[in-house]
Amino acid sequence: MDRQLTTTGKVNRKFEIRGINHIALVSSDMQRTVDFYEGVLGMPLIKTYEIGPNGRFGQHFFFDMGSSSLAFFWFPDAPASVPGVTSVSSLIGSVTAIGTMNHIALDVDADRLPEYKARLEAAGVEVSPIVHHNDVAPALGPDALEDVHESNWVSSIYFRDPDGIHVEFAGWTRLFTEADIACKAATAADAEGWSAKRDAITA
Ligand SMILES: [Fe+2]
């Protein structure tokens, strides 16, 4: 991907990573997954594959999402998903377990979010309000996310696929700068008492 995201000049000098080749998720019903990703989202099915002798271990299908692909496994013996653990439990999103894929964000033009929201809703998909992610904390409550602030860096809508997999349409709204990498990364040791400590900082 040669689209520029930052003005910092930082580049990967270790590996020539060209973007995502594919992300592999797990479906409970491959036909329903095809109906959603190809039928509703319009992503062409580009590869179907059955795993193991006579496909005994399941299926692996790939959809074209532009410069990369989105893949699904269907395993006849897959464990059930657990909302709030393996996938989000709400439309705007939620905590999920360590190691899970919390959500997938498909890149779109932010200016087209109103049109895309209407198109998804016409197809019967429940869609979140358009959310403008700003650097200012939403101190006024979740509704503040619906306000565009000058620090806005990405705008989004959220919805879920038939298995509850959280999907986002996201459009970057500006280039990043050094000011965008000011947060100190938390460690496992920071977890205990984190919320109370953060409340104390802003109190
Ligand atoms: Fe996101």
Automatic annotation (TrEMBL):
Residues 19-172 form the VOC domain. InterPro entries: Glyas_Bleomycin-R_OHBP_Dase (IPR029068), Glyas_Fos-R_dOase_dom (IPR004360), GlyoxalaseI/FosfomycinResist (IPR050383), VOC_core (IPR037523). SUPFAM superfamilies: Glyoxalase/Bleomycin resistance protein/Dihydroxybiphenyl dioxygenase (SSF54593). Pfam families: Glyoxalase (PF00903). Gene3D superfamilies: 2,3-Dihydroxybiphenyl 1,2-Dioxygenase, domain 1 (3.10.180.10). PANTHER family: GLYOXALASE FAMILY PROTEIN (PTHR21366), METALLOTHIOL TRANSFERASE FOSB (PTHR21366:SF31). This is VOC family protein. It comes from Sphingobium phenoxybenzoativorans. The lineage of its organism: Bacteria, Pseudomonadati, Pseudomonadota, Alphaproteobacteria, Sphingomonadales.
